[in-house]
Amino acid sequence: MSAARVKDAELKSAVAAATEGEVDLTGVSAELARRAAAAGLLDLAYCELDSPLGKLLAVASPDGLIKLGYPNVAADAQLAGLAEAVSPRLLEAPGEFDELRRELGEYFEGERRDFAIELDWRLTAGFVQRVLRQTARIPFGQTRTYSEMAASAGSPRAHRAAGSALGANPIPIVVPCHRVLRAGGALGGYGGGLEVKRRLLELEGALQD
Predict the structure, then answer these.
(1) 146 belongs to a structural domain
(2) Which of 86, 89, 135, 194 is most buried (most C-beta within 10 Å)?
(3) Considering 177, 181, 200, 201, which one is annotated as catalytic?
(4) pTM of whole model > 0.70?
(5) How much of the chain is in helix, strand and coil states, percent to nearest 5?
(6) Same-domain check for residues 27 and 90
(7) pLDDT digits (tens, 9 = 90+) for 146-168
(8) Is 177 a catalytic residue?
């Protein structure tokens, strides 16, 4: 199923063709998103956010942030997956992400240790969600092992399953799966790539020499 989405570029083109004066296109886009949400036509808002790691795809539902995607997976592919899993009613709405943009900026500047934005957990369930909810509680600058996360989720022997759960994390950084390492301190895996994992841990001062 293809994602049925209204893009800012299309909106701008339509407005430009319909008016001779100057138009606040950002305001028009924000108003379109507001009206779509009010009319029950918008299930998911999205935009790409600049970061030191590259552009991050942010997607939110009325319940909170549902997806934060790294640039190593094409944004269109991620949106197509969400259209299948959640809803094809997607709208590019950068104004919906001002708080996330601010919090991420503070995090990368070393000024924020905890995220306060609401999360939508519906892309996870069962053991996977239990692991990720426990991961969200790991303090800034600290690390845990896969075995510790399995135990905290109620299945002490399921360390491999815990690794798979962390690999399925749809909201990295905010749900800090980068803070989970192999026993002995090896990095293990990471959906955004090991270099990204290392950079995040270095930012938090969590890597041991």
Answers:
(1) yes
(2) 135
(3) 177
(4) yes
(5) 45, 15, 45
(6) yes
(7) 999 999 999 999 999 999 999 99
(8) yes
